[in-house]
UniProtKB/TrEMBL annotation:
Residues 3-313 form the Isopropylmalate dehydrogenase-like domain. Gene3D superfamilies: Isopropylmalate Dehydrogenase. InterPro entries: IsoCit/isopropylmalate_DH_CS, IsoPropMal-DH-like_dom. It comes from Methanoculleus marisnigri (strain ATCC 35101 / DSM 1498 / JR1). The keyword Cell cycle does not apply. This is 3-isopropylmalate dehydrogenase.
């Protein structure tokens, strides 16, 4: 039995995760799912968005399927997702971007950088400390190089022209790439944002620090049809969490219009992680067949609802098995 923790979260997380979960259940009847509630909704109801017990429940799972949570810009509210990533030490945020003429993987450092959590507010200024450690840089560089070794090459997105902290990051990536024998180039992150959109064929694996990877991946969604399509994996030594790149999208929540593909593809990444690439491929192919049949949610110009799209993928998964 494989244990998968399911966090629907807030907003469209509550719509897209059940779709992804049903598809996982169809391809892998041996998965035992258990629900874990975290997020803004829980905070409003109980005053706590996540606690030690929640983290322990997440730790007990073989993998976590995560939706999205609302993070209000309230000084009294700490991002739960950041707490979870840190508590489970999910240091590699892997974001594949695949589509017509595009096959790029962004590997985002996921535990430090500007998300160090070291911040304070004074009467006339507020400070956030950007921490780039040697250990943190080396391990994400190693992860990205291992991936690039099985693919083509590595690009290091950085701002070492201005930030001393990125000099250390670049140094670590240079050393790891040389050790792994991976062709490696460097690009300032601002220039990279544009060049990736103009010439996606020039890129393969991109490794970068936390917030740069956050911004770059949302921008890269433009290449393949938007945020509704991009999955991600948050990987650590002992734990792994799979979630869409998008957020809780309150503007479209509860309307049955959210695109569940990002969540479904995150489920496929979860299956690969569990050592079942065949089921992962079956899910990916089912999504592609449904898209080719012209069934699409409104963000892709179609009229299918979240649930209807999910039902179509479920049918295709069933057909693939028969
Ligand atoms: P968002 O990703 O939720 O939405 C950005 C835009 O993309 C919106 O117009 C939305 O309607 C659209 N969109 C997103 N996912 C879509 C989908 N599956 N189908 C169709 N359209 C989709 O980002 P935001 O609006 O900046 O943030 C909303 C909330 O989500 C905030 O509280 C933010 O902190 C949170 N957030 C959470 C996560 C997470 O939990 N992983 C990630 C990003 C943002
Ligand atoms: C993401 C999100 C998160 C981040 C927020 C919700 C903490 O934007 O996963 O991309 O900034 O990492
Ligand atoms: Mn983001």
């Amino acid at each position: 039995m494989v244990k998968v923790a399911v966090v629907e979260g807030d907003g469209i997380g509550r719509e897209v995760v059940p779709v992804a979960r049903d598809i996982l259940a169809a391809v892998r009847p041996d998965i035992e799912f258990f629900d874990v509630e975290v997020g803004y909704g829980r905070w409003e109801r109980t005053g706590s968005a996540c606690d030690e017990e929640t983290i322990a429940a997440l730790r007990s799972a073989d993998a976590i399927l995560f939706g999205a949570i609302t993070t209000p810009p309230d000084p009294g509210y700490r991002s739960v997702l950041m707490q979870i990533r840190r508590a489970l030490d999910l240091y590699a945020n892997v974001r594949p971007i695949r589509g017509e003429g595009v096959d790029v993987v962004i590997v985002r450092e996921n535990t430090e950088g500007l998300y160090s959590g070291i911040e304070w507010t004074e009467p006339d200024r507020a400070c956030t400390v950007r921490v780039v450690s040697r250990r943190g840089s080396e391990r994400i560089a190693r992860y990205a190089c291992t991936l690039a070794k099985s693919r083509r090459h590595l690009t290091v997105g950085n701002k070492a022209n201005v930030l001393k902290s990125d000099c250390l990051f670049v140094e670590a990536c240079t050393a790891e790439a040389a050790r792994a024998g991976v062709p490696c180039t460097f690009c300032y992150i601002d220039a990279l944002c544009l060049d990736l959109l103009m010439h996606p064929d020039r890129y393969d694996v991109i490794v970068t620090t936390n917030i740069f990877g956050d911004i770059l991946s949302d921008a890269a969604a433009y290449l393949v049809g938007g945020l509704g399509l991009l999955p991600s994996a948050n990987i650590g030594e002992g734990h792994a969490l799979f979630e869409p790149v998008h957020g809780s999208a309150p503007d479209i929540a509860d309307k049955n219009v959210a695109n569940p593909i990002a969540a479904i593809r995150s489920g496929a990444m979860l299956l690969s992680h569990l050592g079942d690439p065949a089921s992962a491929a079956a899910v990916e192919e089912a999504v592609d067949r449904v898209l080719r049949a012209g069934i699409r949610t409104p963000d892709l110009g179609g009229a299918a609802g979240t649930r209807e799209f999910g039902a179509a993928v479920l049918r295709e998964v069933g057909r693939g098995k028969a």
